[in-house]
Design brief:
Structural class of chain B: alpha+beta
Number of domains of chain B: 1
Oligomer: heterodimer
CATH topology of chain B: Sortase, Chain: A
Number of strands of chain B: 8
Order of helices and strands of chain A: HH
Shape of chain B: elongated
Helix content of chain B: 10-25%
Distance between the termini of chain B: 62 Å
Shape of chain A: rod-shaped
Number of helices of chain B: 2
Number of helices of chain A: 2
CATH class of chain B: Mainly Beta
Chain lengths: ~60, ~230
């Protein structure tokens, strides 16, 4: 996989190295800015409010 | 044979890549969300402070010192919470609504519960380990610890009463009289909820505080309320 990626990149090895770095930074940026914020709400460790499907008498329900 | 070797190598590379992605996600969740949330929440605090005006001066908009908040648009920041136990410079914005998005921007006020200083229960939620973790040290709060909620018109001073650890569906903790749903409130309460244990959402760590007094901005907040409590670390 990575071997093939290295082979398809153009130029001598310093150029390939630079391209790889740019690629890594781009992947990390996409993850940090879009992918991770999108999946985080589905993770099981971020809840901190109380909520219930059936509101108890005299107490408001919260949306999470 | 060659083919098998290549297949095994590719499979290995895929697994290593997945592991790297998981590691990256942990770094993002535990470090980067704090960086961005702290930055954003500091901006919100400064905006609120500008809007409230300097301490000791009457609120610009509210001529009536008894004027209290009754309605705040969803998602809007309306108060600053200061907790001396968490450090002299601890200040976090309180926003209306407890949806996922609002919770990343500060301390979230449960819609429908009382506003600061009102009779009933001013109930808020906050993150414990991520997104700036406003309630990171909620378990350090002791009975008697002061919590100051600053609004445009008032400094509302609460003192910690007790804490409980409950299941996430035990909404009676944010009832007008905490843990006594259906009972008519006679006092002003503050309830803080955060996830528990750390890095988990299995339970909720809940702190109840009672109103000490509400002071108008014009009178200013006595410095004694912001004094570091005994045994404060850092």
């Amino acid at each position: 996989m990575y071997g093939a990626l290295w082979r398809v990149m153009p130029g001598p090895w310093p150029v390939k190295l630079l391209l790889s770095l740019v690629l890594v930074i781009a992947v990390v940026a996409v993850c940090f800015l879009w992918l991770f914020p999108a999946v985080a709400p589905h993770m099981p460790f971020n809840g901190n409010s109380v909520q219930s499907g059936l509101p108890l008498p005299g107490s408001p329900t919260s949306v999470i | 044979m060659k083919r098998l070797q290549r297949g095994v190598r590719t499979l290995g590379e895929v697994f290593i890549t997945l592991a790297l992605f998981l590691f990256l996600f942990i770094a993002w969740q535990l470090w980067w969300t704090d960086v961005t949330a702290n930055r954003a929440q500091t901006v919100t605090i400064h905006a609120l402070e500008r809007n409230f005006g300097p301490a000791g001066t009457p609120a610009r908009a509210a001529a009536d010192p008894k004027a209290v908040l009754t309605k705040v648009p969803f998602g809007q920041a309306f108060a600053i919470m200061r907790i001396p136990r968490f450090g002299a410079d601890y200040a976090r914005p309180v926003l209306q609504g407890t949806d996922t998005d609002t919770l990343t921007k500060g301390i979230a006020h449960y819609p429908g519960t009382a506003f600061p200083g009102q009779v009933g229960n001013f109930a808020v939620a906050g993150h414990r380990t991520t997104y700036g973790k406003p309630f990171s040290n909620i378990d350090l709060l002791q009975s008697g610890d002061i919590i100051v909620v600053e609004t445009k018109t008032n400094y509302v001073v609460y003192a910690v009463d007790r804490h409980v650890i409950v299941a996430p569906d035990q909404v009676e903790v944010i009832a007008p009289v905490p843990q006594h749903p259906g009972v008519q409130p006679k006092q002003a309460w503050l309830t803080m909820t955060a996830c528990h244990p750390r890095f988990s959402a299995n339970q909720r760590y809940v702190v109840f505080a009672k109103l000490v007094r509400s002071i108008t901005r014009a009178s200013g907040l006595p410095a004694s309320y912001m004094a570091a409590p005994v045994g404060t670390v850092g």
